[in-house]
């Protein structure tokens, strides 16, 4: 059946710079299927994918773990870091010793990082703060809280304003305590879409991988775009994109498995998530590698 007879596939794109390497060269008009891009904050994409309002998306790794029985993983795609990530930041108005038993404002845009913060506060630092959800605005968050968690471009912009707050990079804290990678986002496809529209999903997956590979071999277009659209210096963005890793191999999987384990131990996540790769991905992946050779 021609793909023209199908409704467009809806693709969720996180509206933060951290996914640019995977989306920059991705052109939905060049796919073998009709597709629409839905740009949102991670928390909105988590909800929309779960509800079936979108078909395939970059979502919080925590959200993947919560609904892993409904999704397949698109292999070798993630937003990960080994140590400093620069965009998952806790801004401290009070000393850390006070904040771990005080009040912490949490951005409503995240799922992975709010739970990573809880793991850090409660399991690593032995604290028990009160958490409060808040829109991602540092000044307003800190009016009534000892510390505030921001992610993505909200965190990046806030980190450039010299306010004198102490700042913890949660990727770095995680790495210091565990020695592991941290994976913040994964690419997931709903199982019913993958099963009913494999050709469309293959076309999307191959285009995402091709974009990632193009960005890895030349970061220049993304760096220039970031300077123009967001500001900051060339050296900032060079550092930012070189700390981020968009593959998902054994090392990143081990870090995520430990994060899921801790999340379950603290009662933040039910059940045992499985990282089930889309069964058709291997064929798509090896065809792509051959094309690239
Ligand atoms: C590295 C980042 O990774 C992200 C963090 C997420 C989360 O905390 O749920 C989700 C997707 C990514 O945007 C970032 O936002 O800066």
TrEMBL record:
GO terms (BP aspect): menaquinone biosynthetic process
Species of provenance: Cohnella faecalis
Pfam families membership: VitK2_biosynth (PF02621)
Lineage: Bacteria, Bacillati, Bacillota, Bacilli, Bacillales
Keyword Chaperone tagged: no
Function text: Catalyzes the dehydration of chorismate into 3-[(1-carboxyvinyl)oxy]benzoate, a step in the biosynthesis of menaquinone (MK, vitamin K2).
SUPFAM superfamilies: Periplasmic binding protein-like II (SSF53850)
EC number: 4.2.1.151
Protein name: Chorismate dehydratase
InterPro entries: Menaquinone_biosynth, MqnA
PANTHER family, sorted: CHORISMATE DEHYDRATASE
Record-stated family: Belongs to the MqnA/MqnD family. MqnA subfamily.
Catalytic activity annotation: chorismate = 3-[(1-carboxyvinyl)-oxy]benzoate + H2O
Record pathway: Quinol/quinone metabolism; menaquinone biosynthesis
Thylakoid found in the keyword field: no
Keyword tags: Lyase, Menaquinone biosynthesis
Gene Ontology MF terms: hydro-lyase activity
Top-rank lineage group of the source organism: Bacteria
Signal peptide: none
